[in-house]
UniProtKB/TrEMBL annotation:
Assigned GO CC terms: cytosol
EC number: 2.7.1.6
Keyword entries, A-Z: ATP-binding, Carbohydrate metabolism, Galactose metabolism, Kinase, Magnesium, Metal-binding, Nucleotide-binding, Transferase
Official protein name in the record: Galactokinase
Family: Belongs to the GHMP kinase family. GalK subfamily.
One Gene Ontology biological process: galactose metabolic process
Lineage: Bacteria, Pseudomonadati, Acidobacteriota, Terriglobia, Terriglobales
Organism, scientific name: Granulicella mallensis
Domain GHMP kinase N-terminal: 47-131
Enzyme class, first EC level, given as a word: transferase
Length: 352
């Protein structure tokens, strides 16, 4: 689901035959020529420049522009800040070039910008949700086929629930080594499974019985990583059923189980995040809690009764401050629409 934070990219024509990228948040400007193919700069500008590179590879060459990025998505918190910059930039640059692409291709080129230019081994989930989200709904995405469904979160037992996000203020970057290591461990385990069971396309087709049959042929780390993914896929299917039924209690239980798997099998949690999850489920009104994002810090998401959301957020932040002497930020959220284009007379503005 998309939450009510946003990145806005405002684009306007530039008269000096260059592409300008500016962020008010970082107080930085990057200028490149139309034929520039330089490597990444190692800062925020790599995300929109990477998007531009992907558009150029598709034969889309926009005229010179000035792109202004601003927003309120916390960076490094697991709330898709980089994907938000990418999608907003892509939609703005496409509009400036008088070009269009299907939303699936926009999401994919944003993912590839992060993979190939920023050299971050992310998947496509964040970019796709930002592109395709619908208010009041979660998005169920098959990352293999890019088919998707909007699943209602605003009926029956879910109508009076809210998602409370808690930012641990422990920063992470998935371009760093731990996330890449996890991915390599998964791929190594998947290779073992596919060698033993050639009919498997990937882990989405695998069963726990097949994994057990191959356990001795892979490292303990690869075994646990694959077990997390196989069981998480099953939990996602059950979560869809719970949302369709409006069953908040069951959805909350699945969130708790998902975090335990992230913590124990995928091993991408940390002390601060585990504390927030354990503390949350002990507070009145909370039915479920888990980590979100790439792991190793960032945020938790908590399923909380609307009438208890304010007191829950205050109590969770207070407990965290007492334990770690860190002031967590909390946000009470509803599912909102994804990216959109806004036009004005002098500039085009996209929001993601």
């Amino acid at each position: 689901m998309a939450i009510p934070f946003s990145t806005t990219a405002t684009i306007s024509p530039n008269s000096d035959s260059q592409y300008h990228f500016h962020s008010e948040q970082f107080k930085e400007t990057r200028e490149i020529t139309l034929d520039d193919r330089s490597e990444a700069a190692g800062n925020w500008s790599d995300y929109p420049v990477g998007v531009l590179r992907q558009l150029q590879l598709r034969g889309i060459t926009p005229p010179p522009f000035h792109l202004e990025i601003h927003g309120n998505v916390p960076f490094g918190a697991g709330l898709s800040s980089s994907a938000s910059v990418e999608v907003a930039s892509a939609i703005a640059i496409l509009a400036h070039a008088n070009a269009t692409l299907p939303l699936e291709e926009i999401a994919m080129l944003c993912k590839l910008a992060e993979n190939d230019y920023v050299h971050s081994p992310c998947g496509i989930m964040d970019q796709f949700v930002i592109t395709a989200a619908k208010a009041g709904h979660a998005l169920l995405l098959d990352t293999r086929s890019l088919s998707y469904e909007h699943i209602p979160m605003n009926h029956d037992g879910l109508v009076n629930m809210r998602i409370v996000v808690c930012n641990s203020m422990v920063k992470h970057s998935i371009a760093d080594g731990d996330y890449g290591l996890r991915r390599r461990e998964v791929e190594a385990g998947q290779d073992v499974l596919r060698a033993a069971f050639p009919q498997l396309r990937d882990l989405a087709d695998a069963t726990l019985d097949q994994l057990e049959a191959c356990a001795a042929k892979m490292t303990p780390e690869s075994y646990r990583r694959c077990r997390h993914i196989i069981t998480e896929n099953a939990r996602v299917r059950k979560a869809k059923n719970a949302m369709v039924a409006g069953d908040a209690a069951n959805l909350g239980k699945l969130m708790i189980a998902a975090h335990a798997s992230q913590r124990d099998d995928f091993e991408c949690s940390c002390e601060e995040i585990d504390f927030l999850v354990d503390q949350a489920v002990a507070l009145e009104g909370c039915l479920g809690a888990r980590m979100t994002g790439g792991g190793f810090g960032g945020c938790t998401v908590n399923l909380v009764s609307q009438d208890k959301a304010d007191t829950f957020a205050q109590a969770l932040a207070a407990a965290y401050l007492k334990r770690f002497n860190i002031k967590a930020e909390t946000y009470i959220c509803e599912a909102v629409d994804g990216a959109m284009l806004r036009n004005s007379t002098k500039a085009k503005e996209s929001q993601a």
